[in-house]
Amino acid sequence: KSVANKIGHNNVLIHSDIKNLFLFEFNSKNELLEKHFKNVSEIFSDFNIWMPTFNYNFTKMGVYNVGKDESQVGVLSNYFRTVCEWRTTTPVFNFCGNGNYPIDEIHPFKEINPFSNGSEFYYLHETDSINCHYGSNFGNSTFIHYVEGISRKLLYRYSKKFNGVVNQYGTATEVILDYHVTPLFPRVEYDWGKIYSDLIQNNLLYNFKILDSINYVNLFSIRKVFDYWKNKLEIDPFYFLDKDSKSWVIPKVKEMGRGFELNDFEK
Question: How far apart are alpha carbons 57 and 170 in whole angstroms?
Answer without folding.
Answer: 19
